[in-house]
Specification:
Layout (H helix, E strand, L loop, with lengths): L3 H15 L4 H14 L3 E2 L15 E6 L3 E7 L9 E7 L4 E12 L2 E9 L12 E10 L5 E7 L31 E4 H8 L3 H9 L13 H4 L2 H11 L6 E10 L4 E3 L5 E4 L2 H17 L12 E7 L16 H10 L5 H4 L6 E2 L2 E2 L4 H8 L1 E5 L2 E2 L21 E4 L10 H13 L16 E4 L11 H9 L2 E6 L1 E3 L6 E4 L2 H20 L6
Parallel strand pairs: 1-2, 4-13, 4-16, 16-20, 17-21, 18-19
Antiparallel strand pairs: 2-3, 3-13, 5-6, 5-10, 6-9, 7-8, 7-10, 11-12, 12-22, 14-15, 18-20, 21-22
Length: about 500
């Protein structure tokens, strides 16, 4: 029988991922959880030195699709270490094109653009719907974003029947044969009470309404009923929608699976699983009232958008976001308790913070958390013989000699010490003791290797970095699989990392 207590983190993750079909929704869900744990929102455009204090918990967002959250130890001093976990909020998907209206052979279709390196054949014959953000007019003449998530199937990409030569292996053209169908022309005409002749006349008689529009309106660029549905979900009128960023998502809910509920079947495991574990880990690490007492570090998570397409954007990991946040945090004034520490170097009557950023980067550590590969029993030969990660056996340390992952041996030693101190999971059959298991992974020499945000962040900031992730199958498929108990493994690992990094940092030092 499944261990109910051990499955609780997995069920909590299911709530998170089911509510998060897009990075915008994932950040919204993270914000709600952080705020419930006492984190306060701050903004990049505001000054921080007078509002951020040791013992405080804060978060900020950029583009509503990237989020950074941190908690400041009560004994923080400028130049001290920052313990970081980085993840990403995006996953491969199909996004509506700027002009998505399509019609062919009596079908209403929508034009889509591929985002990331998805296994697009898995998107055929799935019940798809629409989610994202819409920009709308406000009553005072401004503009704001609204999140939308249509909870019923809207679209489907039909595969070619085998009787007509449907190919094996499945091959298709991403531009010409990846159009989802959204309904029938006749049904839409009946809904409107119009004929095709009426539509032709309307198009011919279209006249300028007097307002200049640099672009065609949303109802001209997309099926009008799509706009109506989005407007209804956003709680606005169709004419109030100015533009949107909408993606397709699978309406089938993520769920527990396997004979003993030991598995998770879900979309977007890569990488909402590690985003969830990072958010939950930092919340757990500050859950007690005195958790930040006597801590001289800052505990931080950063969950970025656009990792699946290279991270080169204003809200990606290769942007200035994390370095600029860390630079501002590194010079934050210490608490009065830390001020009394005579070991802290002063210049004249004031603290010298001119090198605080560089000092913090030299003593900090980044855990780059992105999902890893589990061994696939049907393709066992694709894996290196001694490096076959298994589900529910712990988080996987990812290693690559060509630095596609940023892991090195000092980092492995550090993470082992963190893992030893972590609370054991409810799945652990040991009667006593602490600790969570870890696994190691490298690709075969004759196989390509993916990469993560780890190498780029470590290069940009000079921070010691390690890459890890929970093992999963079918990465980049519309429906992926991982171990249900590994959720708690990763949460406890991150909790321990935040709690113990301050004491471990100086013990594992390589200049």
């Amino acid at each position: 029988m499944a261990n109910t207590a051990a499955l609780k983190p997995a069920v909590d993750f299911l709530d998170f991922v089911n509510a998060s079909p897009t990075p915008f929704h994932a950040v919204h869900e993270a914000k709600q959880r952080l705020e419930a744990a006492g984190f306060k929102q701050i903004k990049e455009r505001d000054p921080w030195s007078s509002t951020l204090h040791p013992g405080g918990k804060y978060y900020l967002t950029r583009n509503a699709s990237t989020i950074v959250a941190f908690a400041i130890g009560t004994k923080w001093k400028p130049g001290n270490p920052i313990a970081m976990v980085g993840a990403h909020t995006d996953s491969p998907c199909l996004r509506l094109k700027p002009v998505s209206k399509r019609q062919s052979d009596g079908f209403l279709q929508v034009g889509v653009e591929t985002y990331g390196g998805g296994m697009w054949h898995t998107w055929f014959d799935r019940d798809l719907s629409l989610a994202g953000r819409v920009m709308v007019k406000t009553a005072n003449g401004g503009m704001e974003q609204k999140l939308v998530k249509i909870d019923r199937p809207i679209c489907r990409i039909p595969s070619l029947a085998v009787h007509f030569g449907g190919s094996v292996p499945f091959e298709f053209n991403k531009e010409g044969q990846l159009y989802p169908i959204a309904g029938l022309v006749e049904a839409e005409l009946n809904r409107q009470g119009k004929s095709e002749e009426d539509l032709k006349k309307e198009k011919e008689s279209e006249k300028d309404d007097g307002d200049f529009n640099p672009l065609k309106t949303p109802t001209q660029r997309h099926h009008p009923y799509v706009i109506e549905i989005l407007a209804s979900e956003a709680g606005v009128k169709p004419e109030e929608i100015l533009d949107f960023e909408i993606v397709l998502y699978d309406t089938q809910k993520s769920c527990l699976g396997g004979l003993n509920n030991e598995l998770i079947f879900s979309a977007r495991l890569d990488n909402l699983m590690m985003t969830f574990c990072a958010v939950t880990g930092i919340i757990k690490s500050v859950s007690s009232t005195d958790s930040l007492k006597d801590d001289s570090t800052i505990r931080l998570i950063a969950c970025f958008d656009h990792e699946e397409i290279g991270s080169t954007s204003a809200q990606g990991a290769d942007s200035n976001l994390l370095p600029s946040v860390l630079r501002r945090l590194s010079v934050l004034p210490s608490s009065s308790e830390a001020e009394s520490d005579k070991s802290y170097e002063k210049v004249g009557d004031s603290h010298d913070t001119s090198t605080a950023f560089e000092q913090s980067m030299a003593t900090s550590f980044l855990v780059s958390a992105d999902m890893a590969h589990s061994v696939n029993p049907n393709y066992s030969g694709k894996y290196e013989t001694e490096h076959k990660p298994h589900m529910n056996k712990g988080t996987v340390i990812k290693i690559n000699a060509n630095v596609r992952y940023a892991t090195n041996s000092p980092g492995i030693v550090l993470l082992q010490e963190v893992a030893k101190r972590a609370p054991k999971s409810s799945y652990d059959v040991r009667k006593s003791g602490e600790g969570v298991p870890l696994q190691l992974f490298v690709v075969k020499n004759d196989s390509p290797c993916g990469s993560t945000i780890g190498p780029m962040l470590s290069a940009n900031m000079g921070v010691r970095t390690l890459d890890l992730g929970n093992p999963q199958l079918s990465m980049h498929s519309i429906r992926e699989t991982c171990g249900a108990y590994d959720v708690e493994h990763a949460v406890n690992l991150f909790d321990s990392f935040f709690e113990h990094y301050g004491e471990l940092e100086s013990k594992i030092f390589v200049d």
